[in-house]
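Contributing new records

If you add data, match the layout below exactly. Sequence lines come first and carry their own label; structure lines follow with theirs. Keep one chain per record. Anything else will be rejected by the validation script.
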Amino acid sequence: MVQKLELLAPAGSLSALKAVVCAGADAVYFGGGSFGARAYAENFNKEEVLEAIDYGHIHEKKLFLTVNTLLKERELEEELYEYLLPYYTRGLDAVIVQDFGVMRFLQRNFPDLSIHTSTQMTVTGAEGAGFLAGAGAKRIVLARELSLEEIRTIHQSTAAELECFVHGALCYCYSGQCLFSSMLGGRSGNRGRCAQPCRLPYEICGSQWEQQNGRRKNYPLSLKDLCAVSMIPQLAECGVTSLKIEGRMKQAEYAAGVVSVYRAYLDRYERYGAKDYAVDEKDRKKLLDLGNRSGFTEGYLTKRNGPDMVTFDSPAHEKRTAGKERLPEEIKEKITGSLKIKKGMPSELTVSFRGIQATVCSDIPVRADRQPLTKESIRLRLYKTGNTPFVFERLDILLEPGLFLPAASLNELRRRGLEALKEQVIQGYFRTAKQNIQKTKAAQNRQPAAITRQHFTASAETIEQAQVLLGTPWISGIYLDSAVFAQTELVHALAKMYRQANDAGKELFYILPAVFRNHTAVFYRSVLPKLKTDGFLVKSYDALGFLLKEKIAPKQIRIDHNLYTWSAESKAAFRALGVEGDTVPFELNRAEIKRRDNTESEMVIYGYQPLMTSAQCVFKNSGTCRKTPQNCRLKDRYGICFPVKNYCQECYTVIYNSRPLWIFPFTGELKSYGIGAFRFSFTIESGEQTAQVLENFERQAPFDKERFTYGHYKRGVE
């Protein structure tokens, strides 16, 4: 017998949840009225969530609630506990989370509720998985971009359960790292409101694609749907615990249809193993007919990236089963019963299910005048279990002859017996909540630290930028990106740069790659003791976990904007590790920043903000991958151009905002909020442009507002 895998299905409504359970799902994930990453799905109200939990538990299914968005201060302090409390006491099996602060809050207030870290936490390696498991996560939902071999390595390095997407839509960006929708229209993917700008047309300008094909519009950011039903044996052998189907925005018929196919192949694999495992073409066609985008892809499981994963010509989700796909029949749980009808005694029905018994009594039978009860007539009544979740597998009847009970009495006996059994089953999952709620002191109750002076830092991604920063006296610290030096020359070149920074009286921090996968950890483990630097800036849980595991002092670690610290709780979670320096997240507005605890926080006041970080390569998909840094632009339907830069050492691409952030005018205001450190973020600028930006700031030169953006400083996100 091979390993039993969990089949995890989506549900955007209560009807969809029941459909996927009946289709064969082992577990279901769904969103309630708040904090879910699919804010525009039908979702569940409070009564529906409670009904869903009961329904799932009667059928021995697990129920996972999504709280996989970033929470604002007020939401975490005032709403989250009351929101989760009824579901926790009802027996909810797990919560899927994105926010590190939410993890900490749940552990304190709901200590026996399982925590699953969302794919929004962008775990791409063993370091991040191990870190989050150590922080209390029972299960890690892996980034979709991982290969089978990477998954295997993670499994070998952690005891946490691993969950992997096997079917449904693929984001172009690493989940949790996308600000595209947010910056364009205020609909944040980190708040479950993504407007899917990746499904829109763009012209690729300034690349080999343009040279060969001209500037025709296509869909270079729209990926095909994932279908990994053929990879079930390999995923199992790599140590995956749960196979996850995407689709909370889709209809019940779609979700149930996909589940039914995967259920059949999981059962086949669990019974016969990998030998002769193959997917029948009719089942593959059924999945295609249920819905696809220009066909399917097996995603990143067996390849790094590639144009065959992109739809290019159409982003539409097509289906051919409208009105044809039927929902599965309602499943019934088999129970046994024992009925006693004896003269002068109340009628007694005992029903049993999974070792649980319920006994109810009804009327005393009377002597029959004409038609006495028979076992057949009794069974005819009691077997009508109707819309209950039960069906009798066996019913033993002890009936003394010559007695009579009205049909209504038998019906009432059955109804009360099945209700009592159902209540006993679901009550077996109930919990008692803690009486003393432990909340973090809200940030608005803190007095901002008195800022006696401001200091300025800057990050560089090229040698030219770094040289300008070294020559700028009022820049007190430099963040040197991993892209500056080739790995072969890193140790020597960084030591030289460190000496130059030290001679100039500046701190030098090294920025670990934004995507920190297993092979990245292998390289940095080999050179870490030799790196000359005052500390590190990290952009992922993988990089953070790596440094802590390698015994780097927490005070030498600063976290960037995308290790989100929206709330006092999330900031406290990092501080509990000893990591004090953080970066103000890009999606907070001025009121939220004012309310935030900004102690030891730094804020980016200039720079092209990253909208997407992707394992895909625009250059490879549109021409030839040269494995050297290149720039191009994506022009949208309004003529707005978004710079694109590839990072070949770690093989990822970043799409930047069309206009750089510029919030120089508000540094005085930000100082009153307790922020004393401000950062310039240089990415695609030349050395000359870098110098011009710094000179303009120093002179406080007037600027053209149309060429810059305030980002979310004045507006924020929903």
